[in-house]
UniProtKB/TrEMBL annotation:
<keyword id="KW-0862">Zinc</keyword>
<dbReference type="GO" id="GO:0046872">
    <property type="term" value="F:metal ion binding"/>
</dbReference>
<dbReference type="InterPro" id="IPR044115">
    <property type="entry name" value="LIM_LIMD2"/>
</dbReference>
<protein>
    <submittedName>
        <fullName>LIM domain containing 2</fullName>
    </submittedName>
</protein>
<feature type="domain" description="LIM zinc-binding">
    <location>
        <begin position="25"/>
        <end position="85"/>
    </location>
</feature>
<keyword id="KW-0479">Metal-binding</keyword>
<keyword id="KW-0440">LIM domain</keyword>
<dbReference type="Pfam" id="PF00412">
    <property type="entry name" value="LIM"/>
</dbReference>
<dbReference type="InterPro" id="IPR001781">
    <property type="entry name" value="Znf_LIM"/>
</dbReference>
């Protein structure tokens, strides 16, 4: 006769290959748990879709409509407005002006055409 109890007979050994380690992802903006249905990843950071907003105007962003600088996210119009270079800095560094470079490329294209 077997001396094992019913509890021992019912114990099942689980394979470790089927265990899933679930890590809770945290929103980079509000630091709350992000669930799969509201998950959005931009620049390797996880956000709620509602938390992914322009830093300047707070407009909701999508993956195709944002620009990032130093970990901050902006809508494209505000990014251009805030960070567009103003003036001609090339002359100050001893380089040719962009207009001169464009004119030399245009003249090269004209001479190369058949």
């Amino acid at each position: 006769m077997d001396t094992r109890t019913n509890n021992e007979e019912k114990s099942v050994q689980r394979s470790k290959s089927f265990s899933f380690k679930t890590q809770k992802e945290v929103c980079a903006s509000c630091e709350k748990t992000v669930y799969p249905m509201e998950r959005l990843v931009a620049n390797n950071l996880v956000f709620h879709s509602a938390c992914f907003c322009c830093k300047h105007c707070k407009a909701k962003l999508s993956l195709g409509s944002f620009a990032a600088l130093q970990g901050e996210f902006y809508c494209k119009p505000h990014f251009q407005q805030l960070f567009k270079s103003k003036g001609n800095y090339d002359e100050g560094f001893g380089r040719k002006q962009h207009k001169e470079l464009w004119s030399s490329k245009e003249s090269d294209n004209i001479t190369k055409s058949p």
